[in-house]
């Protein structure tokens, strides 16, 4: 339920005002790829990579915020413990796809000034 609530919040944030957020389409890699049984000649030919390249092309061409990436995090940020998800973040960065992080409470964003963080 956290997944759907977080995704709904994201859809409401990126959908144009005259669009039903339920009409926003998502490619959900966990549901589209068998991450444990990839039988390809390199990740470059994977459907996963093709989907990200498609999103990058559409984002570059249109600037539409719907053509971006969103990572949904639970309270333990479990996704960041999975190598596949970290790899996905790397590809998103390389392809210059805007990334948003969401949790059940909504978007994660910087809320403290940088001066409040101290290096050790």
Structure characterization notes:
It contains four helices and three strands, in the order αααβαββ. With 120 residues, the chain is mainly alpha-helical. 7% of the residues are buried. 38% of the residues lie in helices and 9% in strands. The mean pLDDT is 80. It has a three-stranded mixed beta sheet with strand order 1-2-3.
List keywords for this structure.
mainly alpha; 120 residues; 38% helix; single chain; three-stranded mixed beta sheet
Briefly summarize what is shown:
By secondary structure, the chain is mainly α. Helices cover 38% and strands 9% of the residues. The chain has helices spanning 2-14, 29-32, 47-62, 83-94, and strands at 69-72, 99-103, 106-107.
In terms of per-residue confidence, which ranges show pLDDT below 50 for 5 or more consecutive residues? Answer: none
Structural class, from secondary structure content? mainly alpha
Instruction: Supply Rg.
Output: 16 Å
User: Kindly state the mean pLDDT as a whole number?
Assistant: 80
Q: Report the strand count.
A: 3
Q: Reading side by side through the largest sheet, how are the strands ordered?
A: 1-2-3
Set down the secondary structure blueprint.
Elements: H1 2-14, H2 29-32, H3 47-62, E1 69-72, H4 83-94, E2 99-103, E3 106-107
């Amino acid at each position: 339920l956290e997944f759907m609530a977080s995704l709904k919040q994201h859809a409401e944030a990126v959908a144009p005002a005259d669009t039903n957020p339920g009409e926003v389409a998502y490619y959900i890699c966990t549901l589209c790829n068998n991450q444990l049984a990839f039988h390809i000649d390199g990740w470059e030919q994977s459907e996963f990579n093709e989907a990200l390249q498609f999103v990058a092309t559409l984002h570059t061409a249109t600037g539409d915020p719907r053509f971006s990436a969103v990572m949904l995090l639970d309270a333990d940020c479990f996704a960041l413990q999975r190598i596949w998800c970290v790899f996905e973040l790397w590809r998103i960065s390389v392809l210059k796809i805007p990334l948003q992080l969401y949790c059940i409470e909504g978007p994660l964003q910087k809320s403290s000034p940088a001066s409040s963080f101290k290096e050790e």
